[in-house]
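Quick one:
INPUT:
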C-alpha cells in the first residue's frame, strides 16, 4: 500500500523537486556548504545521503583512505575529509566533479576528485572505506543527471560494479539501499561475483526503510 501511494505521488513530488533545484541553492552540513546543481544528485531531499552522513559521523577517519564512489554533490567526501580522512571522490558526471572541486576550495578542504566510470580509473588503488550510494531504479539513463537515479533496464550498473568490486574490496565497503528498490535481485547479482551483503544498519524515515549493507567476499 505504501509503495503504491509513493508511485502515485511521485510525479507531483518530482515536479516540485525539479522546480526547487532549478534555482541556485546551497546545502550546509556540519559547517560545510555546497552548491546544489540541477544536474547533480541532491543531498537536501535525499534520505540516503543524510543517513550515510550520520553513520560516518562518530567514526575515527583520521589518515584513513576513503573512497566515495559516485560522489554526486560530494558532501560525504568533504565531511570525511574534514574528519582527517584521505579522500578520493569519483563520479562520471563532469558537472558534479567541477562543482565539488569548487566546493573543496571554498571550504578549504583537501580531497582528490576524479572522473571515473565506477572503478575503471581507480585501478591498483586500495581503500579503508568505500561508500556507495547507488542508482537503483531499473530504467536506462538518458544523460548524466539520470545516471544518479537509474541503473539500467537490466541493472547494468550493478553488473559492472560487482564485476570490478572484488579487486578493490575493503573491510568497510558500504552500500545504502531503500526498500523501494529490488534488493533481492541486487543481492543475487552480487552473489554471482562472489560477494554477499551483511546488514549493518536499518533506519526508517518517513515510513521508508533504508539499509546500509557491508559488502564482503563470500
Amino acid at each position: 500500500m505504501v509503495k503504491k501511494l509513493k508511485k502515485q505521488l511521485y510525479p507531483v513530488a518530482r515536479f516540485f523537486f525539479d522546480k526547487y533545484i532549478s534555482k541556485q541553492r546551497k546545502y550546509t552540513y556540519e559547517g560545510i556548504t555546497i552548491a546544489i546543481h540541477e544536474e547533480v544528485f541532491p543531498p537536501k531531499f535525499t534520505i540516503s545521503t543524510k543517513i550515510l552522513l550520520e553513520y560516518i559521523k562518530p567514526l575515527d577517519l583520521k589518515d584513513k583512505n576513503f573512497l566515495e564512489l559516485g560522489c554526486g554533490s560530494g558532501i560525504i567526501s568533504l565531511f570525511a575529509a574534514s574528519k582527517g580522512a584521505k579522500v578520493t571522490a569519483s563520479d562520471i558526471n563532469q558537472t558534479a566533479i567541477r562543482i565539488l572541486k569548487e566546493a573543496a576550495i571554498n571550504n578549504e578542504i583537501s580531497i582528490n576528485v576524479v572522473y571515473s566510470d565506477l572503478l575503471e580509473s581507480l585501478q591498483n588503488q586500495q581503500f579503508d572505506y568505500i561508500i556507495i550510494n547507488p542508482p537503483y531504479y531499473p530504467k536506462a539513463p538518458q544523460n548524466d543527471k539520470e545516471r544518479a537515479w537509474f541503473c539500467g533496464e537490466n541493472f547494468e550498473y550493478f553488473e559492472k560494479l560487482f564485476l570490478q568490486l572484488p579487486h578493490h574490496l575493503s573491510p568497510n565497503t558500504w552500500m545504502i539501499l531503500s526498500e523501494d528498490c529490488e534488493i533481492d535481485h541486487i543481492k543475487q547479482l552480487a552473489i554471482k561475483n562472489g560477494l554477499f551483503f551483511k546488514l549493518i544498519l536499518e533506519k526508517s524515515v518517513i515510513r521508508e526503510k533504508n539499509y546500509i549493507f557491508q559488502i564482503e567476499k563470500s
